[in-house]
């Protein structure tokens, strides 16, 4: 079993990004980038990833796909959408946080995260700047950068410790430079997501080992 074969199996079986799972077609345009920011906030809470994804989908179904639509919604409407997605433990505080973050994005960047990117010099500054939004700490910013590196080349390759932990568990290099050589640059977001899934689930690790043999 070669590392390249392992990487292929990992991508084929577990390479869906969290944005794709949430039905976000990620592009370098304001709405999908904002939806990714919301998803990153939801995923960074100590709650199931599947619940966070369902909550992001519920917010999108309710029409809150831009910061303007998010601020136009009432607090209760945001709570209801989060509850529909099963995000009940943190629904009230998160509804408040989403409203504050949307206001901040509109005020500082005219609702467009590309302005934040363009003001930053490199990936580290983008990561830091994302943390200006309520609810987006280091974990949330890292999730955003992992997923956005496919549409924001300035971020790539973005490989954090959770990615490297998952890579090591399935027998891939635990050094970023060696790991990213195993796939094309276009597949980096999928590889990062797959490695994160491996870091979180022994079932994923066993599945990859079984099918890579």
State the major sheet.
none
The gyration radius over C-alpha positions equals 17 Å
Structural class, from helix and strand content? Answer: mainly alpha
- Specify the overall morphology: globular
Element-level helix/strand string = HHHHHHHHHHHHHH
User: What's the pLDDT, averaged over the residues?
Assistant: 96
CA-CA gap between termini: 6 Å
- Unreliable residue stretches: none
How many individual β-strands? 0
Helix content: 55-70%
Please sum up the structure shown.
The chain has helices at 3-14, 18-21, 30-43, 49-61, 67-72, 75-84, 91-109, 113-119, 123-130, 138-148, 161-169, 176-180, 188-200, 202-212. It has 213 residues and is an all-alpha fold.
Describe the protein.
The structure is a single chain. By secondary structure, the protein is mainly alpha-helical. 67% of the residues lie in helices and 0% in strands. It has 14 helices and no strands. The protein has helices spanning 3-14, 18-21, 30-43, 49-61, 67-72, 75-84, 91-109, 113-119, 123-130, 138-148, 161-169, 176-180, 188-200, 202-212. Helix 1 (3-14) packs across helix 14 (202-212) and helix 9 packs across helix 10 (138-148). The longest helix has 19 residues, at 91-109. The mean pLDDT is 96.
